[in-house]
Task: structure prediction
Amino acid sequence: MRTLQRKILPVLLVLLALILIYMPVAWLLISSVSTRAELLSTPIHWIPQAPTLKNYIDILSPSQGVSEVARTFRITLGNSLIVASSVDTRGTDAGIGRGLCSRPAAHAAPPGAAGRHPGHAHDPRDLVVIPMYLFATRFGLFNTR
Amino acid sequence: MEAFRAFDIIYVITNGGPAFGTVTISFLTYLETFSYGHVGRGAALSFLISLFTMVTAFLYIRFLYRPEEAM
Result:
């Protein structure tokens, strides 16, 4: 009995954790293939009665002309890729710089000693975000709504 | 991948403007779901973002991970 408990209890806990983790993802997927009326109806039901791919078609197919979301989607995807690429490039530059700075010399202290990894080095994000913050607060550019 | 989902800085500084010029895909999801009330479309956008992130992560792991580095 005790052995059974030892075997079953972890499995049940893992199942519970998996349900808690994946239930929101499942709801996301379900709501993406449901109609708006179905999503707003009560009581809430998990399985959509009339599943549809209209939401995906609206987003991915600009020829539909249903809304501006398809055109906006492409622009925003481009914007996100620009942000991601620029951050990646900046991070790579900073990484190379840090790598060169922290490269141990021939007479350097052994690994783990102080000074091997310069803790005082600025995070590259600070170098951009702090001046932007100061600039924006000075000229009242923050969205405070 | 984290930067691909940038939201907070854009929300605080530009709020997507001027003329939607700085709207990222996460911000579009927020607008569709909470400003325009298109919950299903927002969910679809979120799922597409997840899918894109997963594919990118897979490619990163597939091409950049070297087993000897794990030693």
